[in-house]
Amino acid sequence: MSATRTWALAVLLAACDTDAPSEFVTSSPGPYFESTMFFNVDATDAPVSPDSDSQIAAVRSAGGWGNGDRIRIDFGMTVLHSNASTQMRQFTPNDSFFLNPDCDHTEVPVPIPGNIEGEEGYQCTTRGDCHLIVLDDDTGKLYEMWKANIRSSLQFDGGCLAIWDVNKTYGEDLRGDQCASADGAGFPIAPLLFDADEVAAGSIDHAIRFVLPNDRVRQGFVRPATHAAYTSGDLGTPYYGSHFRLRADYPIDSLPSEGAKVVARAMQKYGMYHADGGEYALTATSDRFTTAKWEGLLGADDLAALTVEDFEIIDHGDMHDITNDCMR
User: Fold this and answer.
1) CA 180 from chain center: how many Å?
2) In the chain, helix, strand, coil percent, each to 5?
3) Over the chain (328 residues), what is each successive 10-residue block's mean pLDDT?
4) What does residue 278 show for φ and ψ, rounded to 5 degrees?
5) Contact between residue 212 and residue 66 where contact means Cβ atoms under 8 Å apart
6) Cα→Cα distances 222→243, 249, 315, 322, Å
7) pTM of this prediction?
8) CA–CA separation, 26 vs 325, rounded Å?
């Protein structure tokens, strides 16, 4: 069996909560999920894609990272918690951002206090993604919505809602092949974010979400993604779902903060998965509800020294065309 197929098997076995081959070590399950998934797999020794160098070169030719080729951390997302006493709210699907059968249409818990991405409350006042992320601790359901906008007690508009069962063991199709989620690649968002408590504790034990501008992404997707947004075409650049890993020889001690070093070590061990399109490469959670705070721990530009050439792309096998034939 080739190294690529062995690695793909290891990821699938991990996702199915089965003993993976010994050369591929998984971390404990989580965050949030009770079974191991793709983001729990130790990728230190995973085989590199044969065209990793050419893909990285293509990203460079297209302009590198977003944000003027400067890797930056967005601290705008909040992961909220709800329980049986939390008010459930029905929403009206926003036809521009809601897909059938990809997205779920049911009541959503809305904790008070709380907020959507980039906002102090629940109203989407900007042109941002306005993600609403809520983990219900009583039911074990993770609610993730794109383009949430709660303007009043009677007005709640929502884009794609993806509900994840954190007690379920998901296979390689996640919520369904060719199905979107609240992220373009079909991933759950919350477990790929990192928070101030993890960084302050000195270890991020999972892979990290990252984004690239869609004019720097190739059409199609690779596993573990189940979906992709339409992009500019075949540029020789990475696909949705591509798994980047910080090179083992990167001088982590040269980074300007201890927090940056913690993130970089996670990038070397677990890597980061391309999840959506955007300008700010990395996404951390807000520290609104965490014990540790970002001030003095990690700044938005503390990883700006990392160039696309400091990464390599792990081989995940065959590309999947975008058909939008979502099979839930």
Assistant:
1) 13
2) 20, 20, 60
3) 49 48 74 96 96 97 96 97 98 96 98 97 94 98 98 95 97 97 98 98 98 94 95 86 98 98 98 96 97 98 98 95 94
4) 170, 180
5) yes
6) 9, 26, 9, 10
7) 0.93
8) 32
